[in-house]
Amino acid sequence: MWLVRAAHVAAVAAAVAGSALVAPALARSTPAAAAGTGVDVTPTLSSTPFGAPPGQRVTHTITLSATGTGSLPAVRVTFTTTVALDGVAANASAGSCPIVTPLTVVCDLGNLDFAGTNSTGPAGPSSPQVTITGTVHSGTAGGALVQNLVNITAGAADADPTNNVTSNAYLVPGGSTAPLAPSSGRPLAEPAASRAPAHGMSPVVVVALSVLAVLVVAALVIVLRRRRRPSPADGDDGGARGV
Fold first, then answer.
1. Where does the chain cross the membrane (predicted)?
2. What's the whole-model pTM score?
3. Tens digit of pLDDT for each residue in 108-134?
4. Residue ranges per domain, the chain?
5. For 170, which of 51, 160, 193, 209 could close a Cys bridge (C-beta 3.0–4.6 Å)?
6. How would you class 200 by CB atoms within 10 Å of its CB: exposed for 0-12, middle for 13-18, buried for 19 or more?
7. Please, what is the end-to-end C-alpha distance for the chain in angstroms?
8. CB neighbours of 1 closer than 8 A, spacing ≥ 6?
9. CATH label, 40-171, candidates 2.60.40.10, 2.60.40.1290, 3.20.20.70, 3.30.9.10
């Protein structure tokens, strides 16, 4: 009996010792859960001058600010507008802008550490910026809606993804400065024959009355000529009186 109990105690001790040795190995082989970023990135957009008319040069400045500290991988800034920018150009304080078109600009800023160090290289700016310049398309009609939109995306979600979009908008104050085709400009003057008289009669009625007036005048002229023509009797009497 004593030998059985001793064997049992030894087995339990071995099992405990074995579990103590296996636990660290299991801990090393189990992947750690990805830690969420504690930084919240928010974009701001300033357009100078705001409300630029067609043909006016404008500068859009996008600034990334953050609350909290931490890194955010693969940060991308996407700018879109509803009215084309002529001669558009873009510059980023970090990374590059692979897509630059009159309506869309995309800049990849890389991995950013908002504690003050860019993880892709040496210390980077604490508030990364993207600057976009261009001229509001000269053919834009007055009253057109200009809406500028900025969206921030990254390889990992920040602390509050709901504030990663910002925008501004206005109506174009002036008309187009480009030459307008007759069909898109003011209506051409109507031909004289198509205009209605001031008294409101239609052109058909006016023409009919004009023709009737001409016929009446012609009839009166014929009647007057017949009355002035001397009759044959008047000619004979005149001859007799002359004798």
1. 204-224
2. 0.56
3. 999 988 864 444 433 344 689 999 999
4. 40-171
5. 51
6. exposed
7. 196
8. none
9. 2.60.40.1290
